[in-house]
Amino acid sequence: MAVLVSQFNAKTALAVGVLMILVSVVKQYRSRRRMPPGPRPLPLIGNIHQIPKSYPWLGYTDMFKRYGPLVTMQFGPQQAIMIGSIEAARDLLDKRNTIYSSRPRAPMIQECISKNLRILFLPYGDRWRAYHKLHASVLNVRVSEAYRPLHDLESRQLLLELSEADAGELFPSHFFRYSASLIYSLAYGIRLPKGVEPELKVAYQVMEELNQVFLRTWLVDILPWINVLPKALAPWKRVADRMHEFESSFLRSLVVSAEQKPGWNWCKNMLAMKESKNMPRTELGYILGVLYEAGSDTTAIALSVFVMAMILYPSVASKAQEELDRVVGPDRMPTFGDLDDLPYIHAIVKETLRWRPVIPGGIPHAVTEDDEYKGYHIPKGSMIIPNLWAMAMDEQVFKQAEHFVPERWIENPSLPLFPFGFGRRVCPGQHVGKNSLLINTARMLWAYNFEHAYEVKDGLQVQCPVDAMAFTSSFNSQPLPFKASIIARGAKVHEVMQREWKLTEKDHLVHLEHLQAKMESMARQSAQDVAGQS
């Protein structure tokens, strides 16, 4: 009898398994009939076996060449549509942003690690709008211009750091110090002049752990329904809880510290807004923390890309330096007031962002309603992934796309610039980021030549390689370590840098006190404008 029952259970299980596979095949076939083309999925797992193991944006770019600008993929139960053209991205994510502004579920990073507090992965809704309003209050165009004195301070220190003997190897760390110190000063009233402060070390550790999460494929991201399992049966939850406790404790401590600092900062500004009323300090910590995560990494990586480009394209650097010598001259360093007269510097910054986008694989969106586009059906709930690398390398939009050609932006100012994202999910810190890139690009080219470094091997001088495709295969893709020779453009450069550094107000709290007065003045002006319109 027991044998018969065992055989019956085995047959039943087999039948159920076969039925599940048949249902999966039928559902996939029906759902994909009018969707964009793509590789054939397998039952249950879909196209998971076809996800590129490294540099996925390159693998998906090859798919666009085969299937067209829209490619359908199936990641387990999740439908995904990859976008490989700027036209399609703008048509869907920009022009139809009312239904393309949400995010797909991200069980590991958002639900388990961040406890749904990280705005980057938060679905579109009331909570996202409240968080976004807090961000916009300190990151809009007008307010961002008021941060120029702090940009100026950190940029002047960066120029001096690049004159040090080991700068040719350590320049990425100087870029990270610059961007981290700028964000920390604004967010928490904490300056990081040495680049080895405890706050920075912990922030690096958090970022490194998050990057490791992005590099791995987590079962819970493929099969989200298993997230209901108890912790004893869900090893990813133990990893996530440890990370959350470490990160949330750190972010909460920064908020508490910022409240006690003199002068103005982003934390105090947000605490005074109705959107943060009764908000736990941990929640505000995540709202502020994502600005560091997004802002410091992207700016520092873009500056390293700039150095790579200047080494590989010396004629571009020479042309920019001719412009700087004509507009600025040798007796002072460039200021924000010069930027309007430096169109080629603007073009270099735009080309840096296009040539090697910091997030080449894009950040997924989610569509909240069924949609139709160019004869294709896009089902509600689909993950929509804009592939920024494919867009940047589109020869129909950018001729000689593989090459670093700033002139394209001067010859055609209407070219699309998309590295900051699309629609309502565009990066709110883009104005602060652009200001950092502009002032540092201008000053570095005014002060230095960036050339190939050399080292001695077997008694011979050998040129150190700089590979334009040698980047990390991570969410934020940065150049793999390379050496540069950073040479001052004459003895007078050091004289000017030292003179201007001596004249610089180095106390960031003084700058923040001035910022407080500016913010109060702007608030009064805004109130008067509103009163005048009523």
Describe this structure in words.
The protein is an alpha+beta fold. It has a single domain (77-532), classed as Cytochrome P450 (Cytochrome p450, Orthogonal Bundle). The chain has 20 helices and 10 strands. The protein has a 4-stranded mixed beta sheet with strand order 1-2-6-3. InterPro entries: Cyt_P450, Cyt_P450_CS, Cyt_P450_E_grp-I, Cyt_P450_sf, Cytochrome_P450_fung. This is Cytochrome P450. Its cofactor is heme. Pfam families: p450.
Task: Summarize the helices and strands and which ones pair or pack.
Layout (H helix, E strand, L loop, with lengths): L1 H31 L23 H12 L2 E6 L2 E6 L2 H9 L12 H7 L12 H14 L1 H5 L2 H14 L5 H22 L9 H18 L3 H4 L12 H26 L5 H6 L9 H32 L1 H14 L15 H13 L9 E2 L4 E3 L2 E3 L4 E4 L1 H5 L14 H5 L18 H18 E5 L1 E4 L2 E4 L20 E5 L2 H12 L5 H26 L1
Parallel strand pairs: 2-6
Antiparallel strand pairs: 1-2, 3-6, 4-5, 7-10, 8-9
Helix pairs in contact: 4-11, 7-8, 7-18, 7-19, 8-13, 9-11, 11-13, 13-14, 13-15, 13-18, 15-18
